Amino acid sequence: MFTGIVEELGEVIAVETLDDACRFRLRGPVVTQGAKHGDSIAVNGVCLTVVEHEGDEFTADVMAETLKRSSLGALAVGSRVNLERPTAVGDRLGGHIVQGHVDGTGEILDRTPSEHWEIVKISLPADLSRYVVEKGSVTVDGISLTVVDAGRDHFTVSLIPTTLALTTLGIKKPGDPVNLEVDVIAKYVERMLGDRVAGEEVTR
């Protein structure tokens, strides 16, 4: 489990395209501290498994399903990525519960800068819109954010200078894709209520 608090901006230093997958080599001095084979590291919000680790670099394999459902397929050598290690039991939950299981992708639609923050408008797939609510939590490229405004096909977030400086959202431009993970609690509530309604219909 992750919290959506990005630990560092890493960099893609090699990309190997396989028949039905892709292997990335990434640099991240912070997240590789104590890393070992089999550990999990979130890359732009996608939970990946460390295959090899040497110095401040690690490799991770990405299967076709993940490439299809996320924006990782758009990464190239030199791309900057948000990196986060899993939260440890007993640590503070600084953001919200993030699984690293991307639900879909959106696109940066617009950026509106102001003196102390920046409003970013992001497109929202129709099948995810019911999970995104005003003042609720959403994960964008692995970053835990609070929704400012939620529309049918978009939402906005307000970014403080720290987020702009330390994550990919500081350099993303309109048209760039982003990974989205909605609040898992909302999905569980929907499932439980759906089962309950279905059960009531059966007993009628």
UniProtKB/TrEMBL annotation:
The Lumazine-binding domain, residue ranges: 1-96, 97-193
GO molecular function, one term: riboflavin synthase activity
Enzymatic reactions: 2 6,7-dimethyl-8-(1-D-ribityl)lumazine + H(+) = 5-amino-6-(D-ribitylamino)uracil + riboflavin
InterPro entries to which the protein is assigned, alphabetical: ATP_synth_asu-like_sf (IPR023366), Lumazine-bd (IPR001783), Lumazine-bd_dom (IPR026017), Riboflavin_synthase-like_b-brl (IPR017938)
Lumazine-binding repeat locations: 1-96, 97-193
Identification of the protein by name: Riboflavin synthase
EC numbers on record: 2.5.1.9
Role of this protein: Catalyzes the dismutation of two molecules of 6,7-dimethyl-8-ribityllumazine, resulting in the formation of riboflavin and 5-amino-6-(D-ribitylamino)uracil.
Pathway linked to the protein: Cofactor biosynthesis; riboflavin biosynthesis; riboflavin from 2-hydroxy-3-oxobutyl phosphate and 5-amino-6-(D-ribitylamino)uracil: step 2/2
Repeat among keywords: yes
Keywords for this protein: Repeat, Riboflavin biosynthesis, Transferase
